[in-house]
Specification:
Strand order of the largest sheet: 12-11-8-13-16-17-18-19
Distance between the termini: 29 Å
CATH architecture of the largest domain: 3-Layer(aba) Sandwich
Low-confidence stretches: none
Helix content: 25-40%
Strand content: 15-25%
Mean pLDDT: 90
Number of domains: 2
Largest sheet: 8 strands, mixed
Length: about 400
């Protein structure tokens, strides 16, 4: 049930405790969720749509019959990584248990394959009603998390079970149920991805085959673990970048542009993962017009700045720098370890890209080397898995 993203639908039922979901929304944002609120029509009698829009930063959907041509309940369901309904009234429990979907919220839940969390809050007698308890049993059997309400004072002078649960308990139970790892919460992670291009003339350039997939995987993994993430993207397709809601993206093309972006962002980050394939050289002279084919015989080159070495020299003790090395042929671990020390980095990932391997693929294999001279063989696995491995090593290095 591990979440791949942090898009959450917060359904709000028509109970007096609806106002408490404003604090829940804030706490869910704190662990990295982007939240779309779907209040029932009845709940708007307690908390208005303007409040939910102001707190979530997103427009609020309330009507199943608005923008019907967009099929909103299906689009919302497909985008959700988690659905939380708070408060869940006795009426909503009954509808969900019986598969009834007569409004936007229940229709979205019916169409969603995401984990569902229900947070009942109601008067004690309603909570203990046999029909309500039967509905709770049905929903739990279907795999939904139904969180037990707290005991305490009700709306009037009555006292009993049925109160909206403590927010800290809700965050704990939701996180455990949905397997949410927020160990990077409060951390700032900077990632470079893609390949830089050095212009020869207005239509030609020196470049490489990097797709940016590994850097994208790292940015997503860091975001999903609660980090504030900045991605410096060098010539990456819009389709790949569209997967990164919640990540600040800085698009660059050349090594010089990458260097400028790093110069601005590096000092404020705690972890930098340099997954971008940086061009080692650039033309001495950039032609302002396309060079004619008959005149296109040779190119004079000069070295680009060694960005990794410059950042390694600049790195503070409370920063971790992760580097990548792509080689062809036999992977020279001794040479890679020498590079790791010379560049001033703490972790280096080495892989063999011979025969078109790795670049553009969804999988990778290689070695993780660390400053303490430890070496871990990485068998063939997804780039998503490697992303989490590298983030794990980075956290250990931060201490």
């Amino acid at each position: 049930m591990t979440l791949q993203g942090r898009n959450l639908i917060l359904g709000v039922g028509g109970g007096i405790s609806a106002y408490k979901s404003a604090e829940l929304l804030r706490r869910l944002q704190d662990i990295g969720f982007s939240i779309q609120v779907i209040p029932t029509v009845a709940s708007l009698n307690f908390v208005g749509a303007a409040t939910w829009e102001a707190l979530s930063g997103n427009s609020v959907a309330t009507n199943l019959w608005s923008n019907v041509h967009d099929v909103p309940h299906i689009k919302l369901a497909d985008r959700a990584d988690l659905v939380v309904v708070a408060p869940t009234t006795a009426d909503l429990l009954a509808k969900l248990a019986n598969g009834q979907c007569d409004d936007l919220l229940t229709s979205v839940i019916s169409a969603s394959s995401a984990p569902i969390v229900l947070i009942p809050a109601m008067h004690t007698q309603m909570w203990l009603n046999a029909a309500t308890q039967a509905n709770v049993s049905i929903l739990r059997e279907r795999g939904h998390l139904v969180i037990e309400p707290d005991e305490g004072r009700m709306t009037g002078d009555d006292y009993g079970v049925g109160r909206y649960p403590d927010i800290s308990r809700l965050i704990s139970e939701i996180s455990k149920f949905a397997e949410i790892n927020s160990d990077l919460r409060g951390r700032k992670v900077l990632v470079t991805a893609g390949g830089t291009r050095e212009a020869i003339d207005p239509v030609r350039y020196i470049g490489n085959n990097s797709s940016g997939k590994q850097g994208i995987a790292i940015a997503k993994a860091a975001r999903n673990r609660g980090a504030e993430v900045i991605l410096i993207a060098a010539n990456i397709s819009k389709a790949l970048l569209s997967e990164l809601q919640g990540v600040k993206i800085i698009e660059v093309s050349s090594t010089q542009e990458l260097e400028s972006a790093l110069d601005i962002e590096f000092d404020s980050c705690e972890i930098l993962l340099m997954a971008a394939a940086v061009a080692d050289a650039k033309p001495v002279k950039l032609a302002t017009e396309k060079i004619k084919k008959k005149e296109f015989s040779n190119i004079s080159l000069e070295r680009n700045s060694d960005l990794l070495a410059e950042l390694g020299a600049r790195r503070r003790v409370d920063q971790v720098l992760v580097a990548f090395a792509a080689e062809t042929g036999v992977e020279d671990l001794a040479a890679a370890n020498t590079k790791l020390v010379a560049k001033g980095v703490q972790v280096l990932y080495l892989n063999d890209v011979s025969g078109g391997a790795i670049f553009g693929s969804d999988e990778t294999c290689g070695y993780i080397l660390e400053i303490d001279k430890s070496v871990v063989r990485v068998s063939r696995q997804s780039k998503d898995t490697l992303a989490d491995l590298l983030l794990d090593r980075s956290l250990i290095k931060l201490g």
